[in-house]
Amino acid sequence: MPLVVVGSVAIDHVETPTERRNNLLGGSATHFSVSASFFTDVRLVGVVGSDWPEEHTAMLQSKGVDTSGLQVVEGGKTFTWTGRYLPNMNDRETLDVQLNVFGEFDPVLPEDYKRAKYVFLANGVPAVQMKVLSQVPGRRLAVADTMDLWISTQRDDLDQLLGELDGLVLNDSEAKLLTGNENLVEAGRAVQDMGPKFVVIKKGEHGAMFFGEHETYVLPAYPTENVVDPTGAGDSFAGGMMGYLAEKDNFDADTLKTAMAYGILVASFNVEGFGLEHMHNITRDDIEERMEEYRRMLSF
Amino acid sequence: MPLVVVGSVAIDHVETPTERRNNLLGGSATHFSVSASFFTDVRLVGVVGSDWPEEHTAMLQSKGVDTSGLQVVEGGKTFTWTGRYLPNMNDRETLDVQLNVFGEFDPVLPEDYKRAKYVFLANGVPAVQMKVLSQVPGRRLAVADTMDLWISTQRDDLDQLLGELDGLVLNDSEAKLLTGNENLVEAGRAVQDMGPKFVVIKKGEHGAMFFGEHETYVLPAYPTENVVDPTGAGDSFAGGMMGYLAEKDNFDADTLKTAMAYGILVASFNVEGFGLEHMHNITRDDIEERMEEYRRMLSF
After folding, report:
1. Max Cα separation, chain A?
2. What is the pLDDT of residue B136?
3. What pLDDT is attached to residue A225?
4. B224 touches chain A (CB under 8 A)
5. Which residues form the Carbohydrate kinase PfkB domain (chains A, B) (predicted)?
6. In terms of C-beta density within 10 A (0-12 exposed, 13-18 middle, 19 or more buried), how is residue B273 classed?
7. For position A231, what pLDDT does the model report?
8. pLDDT value for A90
9. C-beta of residue B53 within 8 angstroms of C-beta of residue B72
10. Which residues of chain B have pLDDT under 70?
11. Are the beta carbons of A300 and B206 separated by less than 8 Å?
12. Exposed site from A47, A188, B147, B214, fewest CB < 10 Å?
């Protein structure tokens, strides 16, 4: 089934302890789209400026991503993010953010996108995420990401959004902030009480936790030692997870758990290259091979 | 097979955000012994003062722990530790440490202990750990724990010990300190290069990683929301792991992975009560029931 994603499309400048790379294809919707493209047809909604390099669009299209929902604002500039990773490759400093055209993003879905059954709202202003939902009234599964900024400044809008969602994906520090609870198991259940039928807490290099109607579980990250650039790992996780759900056109408990495992594995490939460079080169077979290894790792 | 453990036996005073409890049965060898007692015969080596409450020895004996190696120094005082957990229940402050008789601990193994095949050296001065090893020349499997203090101040002795060990268990920050590497996968392999045939990195609420001759894997912690007192979780983990290996009298790759899973589960029970209170009340059946749930959690 087609999967619609709405979120940021950006140009990233990334510095790690060993290397600096400029003008990488970045953004939450971009990492999500490429990750989901291994599983299903992806329809991207985003906005860029006239500085947007055409080869980035071509790269997305080469992965089968439908970019007809990518607005180009003539004379505008694309969202840019500049960041530096600390030696542990988990903590990072944002050196510069230029929202540019993304600051005025008013997503309008093409007609054929509006019939989508699977929708992912990548991190964005909650009120804008709500406006997207209202454009896909026939959706079967709507999942969103959020971030500390909206939890702190847009809480009313976020609460309203939570009431409309089937699932919420957020990271561990955000779950603690949203609930005021430092115990992740309690925090996950508390987020679920705010509305979403299921909640996924991303723990970075420590994997992810799932909170559903009848079960709570945790799966570890795939232990890659080749961490080149963690940017977009969380969006890749969500892309792998949602892509698999849309492929199966099912979100029962078993499918959700397998989907979470795919999300974890796709994220492990994402961090093995700068931006989307490594993702561009892998295939579904590479993912399936790692999945076999991951299942073996968890069997005893 | 009998399992010998040498380490600290202590009286703990513990403060959490909601409660303060004094005079708890504590110490690395104690948490280890009780945890291992669900699987095999445990022979404890430690030292206490004449203030040691007899009921603590009785509790250990009720779990089948052989306490004939527990020296009592007349007129001496038992090691005490006082600590406070921060609201996240992971970070803690040590408020007071009184080494007392443990500061002069010179472990002498009873004759029947010296024929042990399975030995665990709980956290202690590396030179003292070495002296224990020399008393069990016919051992089949020797595993040790260590800590930041010895890594920083007793590095030569520790390096010598690493060359004698079959396995080393340490936590994530200690692995980074020991190797100077912030990537845990690389750090684990680097520790292995220092001598031990296998290395286990404990990640607290995030589970544990294993580095063996032919494989690297990670297993998540069991997601308990009932974290009452994390003291001794790492020692309980080691106790469950070593106890299972001694029970099976085997440490091939499959047995090691199952043993690590038991360690994770026993640690999850340990944190559900102050000191060893909850451990005192559970049975092997409780562990097996949680193991079934854990295996289900990791299956998809």
Report:
1. 58
2. 97
3. 83
4. yes
5. 3-276
6. middle
7. 97
8. 84
9. no
10. none
11. no
12. B214
**What span, in angstroms and rounded, lies between the C-alpha atoms of B78 and B93?**
21
> Are A209 and B224 inside 8 Å of each other by CB?
no
Integer CA distances (angstroms), B245 to A37, B36, B251, in order: 45, 10, 6
**Cβ neighbours of residue B257 closer than 8 Å, sequence gap 6 or more:** A300, B210, B217, B219
In the predicted model, residues of chain A with pLDDT beneath 50 are: none
Taking CB atoms and an 8 Å cutoff, what residues of chain B touch A225? 183, 185-186, 189
Q: Give the HSE-up count for residue B272: Cα atoms under 13 Å, Cβ half-sphere.
A: 15
Nearest to B298 among A182, A206, A298 (CB): A298
Q: Pick the closest to residue B78 from B103, B49, B99, B105 (CA basis).
A: B49
Residue type, B259: A
| Residue A219 · residue B298 · CB < 8 Å | yes
Supply the pLDDT for residue A88: 87
Q: How many CB atoms lie within 10 A of CB B84?
A: 15
A209 close contact with B: CB closer than 8 A: yes
Taking CB atoms and an 8 Å limit, are A220 and B216 in contact across chains? no
Chain B contact probe: residue of A217, A254, A268 with most B CBs at under 10 A: A217
Residues B223-282: tens digit of each pLDDT:
998 999 999 999 999 999 999 999 999 999 999 999 999 999 999 999 999 999 999 999
pLDDT at B41: 98
Record: contact A218-B218, CB cut-off 8 A? no
Sheet arrangement for strand A216-219: A66-73, A42-49, A3-6, A118-121, A141-145, A167-171, A198-202, A208-211, A216-219
- Cβ contact (<8 Å) for B299 and A298? yes
Q: Is B299 on the interface with A (CB under 8 A)?
A: yes
Q: How far is A152 from chain B (nearest CA, A)?
A: 20
**How many residue pairs from chains A and B have C-beta atoms closer than 8 A?**
70
CB B300 to CB A258 under 8 A? Answer: yes
* pLDDT for residue B40: 98
How far is A219 from chain B, CA to nearest CA, in Å? Answer: 6
Residue ranges and CATH numbers for the domains of chain A are: 3-297 (3.40.1190.20)
ipTM: 0.91
| Sheet containing strand B118-121, strands side by side | B66-73, B42-49, B3-6, B118-121, B141-145, B167-171, B198-202, B208-211, B216-219
- B200-236 core/surface letters (b: 16 or more CB in 10 A; e: else): bbbbbbbbbbbbbeeebbbbbbbbbeebbbbbbbbbb
CA distance B66 to A289: 48
Spell out the alpha helix ranges (H) of A37-136: 54-62, 126-133
A241 neighbourhood in chain B, CB within 8 Å: none
**Minimum distance, in Å, between the CA of residue A227 and any CA atom of chain B:** 8
Tokens of A168: 């919420």
Q: Which residues of B touch A300 (CB under 8 A)?
A: 254, 257-258, 261, 295
pLDDT of residue B102: 96
Tokens of B201: 């990195």
